[in-house]
Design brief:
The protein is α/β, with parallel strands linked by helices and 210 residues long. It has seven helices and six strands, in the order βααααβαβαβαββ. The protein folds into two domains: 139 residues, HAD superfamily/HAD-like (Rossmann fold), CATH 3.40.50; 58 residues. A six-stranded parallel beta sheet has the order 3-2-1-4-5-6. The protein is globular.
Length: 210
Amino acid sequence: MDKFNVIFDIDGVIVDSEQLHFDVLCALAPDYTHHVQPQQLIGLSLKETLDYIGVPAQQQQEITDKIVSVYKDKLSQSYLRPGIARLIEALQQHSIPFGFVSTAPREVCLANIGLLGLSESPALISGDDVVRTKPNPDPYLAMLELKSMDVHQTLVIEDTDLGITAAVQAGIPYVYAWPHALSVAEQYQQATRIIGVLTDIPQFSRISFA
């Protein structure tokens, strides 16, 4: 594949943030998180998470606002996954189109992406931008349309089975799973390949970023 496009998931791919999300959730909703493990929440949107742990609907907006605020305060560049900033810099240098897809609220997505120091506004489809999010294909279909990407020349990097299902259902042929400490329960059966480092992806072999 001479030409290619890249779509990145954000939480777990750009930033190793799943434990931070869980810690903030536990601090702000302690009555609902006693019997929940972080692995159970991987890939869920914030609303799905609050529904899952049993937060009443009338309390969810207040808790959501607090979670987003505290999360942003605690976020730092130390959460960036190894090599991701250098990879994205290389994509920019080689004029390779890329975008970001996430189930998280747009405000959280922008905070995470902001750690990359991009010179232009990112192409982003957040959980706020689609009616149906992952595992439905809608977020990936929206990004393909937003960036006018050829689906046959597109690859995705994900960390969850929900995200991989969404990308596969969108018709994307190259979907790579990049595990982290909290993804031990993920199966990755639909993934093209499970990678340990970004340089395991063949399409990145001709751009220098390591």
